[in-house]
Design brief:
The protein is mainly alpha-helical and 152 residues long. Helix content is 69%, strand content 0%. It is globular.
Length: 152
C-alpha cells in the first residue's frame, strides 16, 4: 500500500501543474481566437498521422475499464473531436476544439501512470498539439511559458 503513494502523489502533482498550464492557456490569445475549420482539420490530421502515438486516442476508451468513469468525467477521443468539427465546423473551430484536444491527452495522463506507453504518447501528442496551435495563434505554447518562468 505504501508503494502506491509516491506514484499517486507524482501523478497528482503532474496533473496540478498541467491544469495550471491549461487554465492559463484558456485566457491566452490562442484560445480567444476563432480559427478557420480547415486549420483545425490540418492540426487534427497532423496528430492522427503520428501513428504509434495516436492509435490510443482515435476511438473512445473501452467500457471494459470499470474505473475509467470514476476518474474521468468528460471522456473524449480524437474521433469524437473530428465528428464535432465535421458537424459544426464554424461553431466548434477555435477555443472548444483546442480544449477538447487537450482534454483527450490530459485524460490519458490522469488515468495512466507516467511510465505507461499511453501516458508517454499523450505527453508527446500534447506537446505536438501545443506547438501546432501556437504556430497558428502566433503565441508561445504553455509549456514553453512554464520553462521561461522556471529559469527566471
Amino acid at each position: 500500500m505504501l508503494d502506491v503513494w509516491p506514484s499517486l502523489i507524482l501523478r497528482l502533482l503532474t496533473l496540478r501543474l498541467s491544469f495550471s498550464f491549461f487554465r492559463s492557456s484558456l485566457f491566452s490569445s490562442a484560445s480567444s481566437l476563432q480559427c478557420v475549420p480547415s486549420v483545425c482539420r490540418a492540426i487534427l490530421s497532423g496528430l492522427v498521422r503520428e501513428g504509434e502515438d495516436a492509435r490510443f486516442f482515435l476511438e473512445p476508451v473501452s467500457h471494459q475499464l470499470a474505473d475509467y468513469p470514476l476518474l474521468i468525467r468528460s471522456a473524449v477521443d480524437l474521433g469524437t473531436v473530428r465528428s464535432r468539427l465535421d458537424a459544426a465546423p464554424h461553431q466548434y473551430a477555435g477555443e472548444q476544439f483546442a480544449n477538447d484536444v487537450r482534454l483527450v491527452f490530459r485524460n490519458a495522463m490522469l488515468y495512466n501512470r507516467p511510465e505507461d506507453p499511453v501516458y508517454v504518447s499523450a505527453l508527446r501528442l500534447l506537446d505536438l498539439f501545443e506547438e501546432m496551435w501556437a504556430r497558428f495563434a502566433d503565441t508561445p505554447p504553455p509549456r514553453a511559458l512554464f520553462r521561461d518562468k522556471d529559469q527566471v
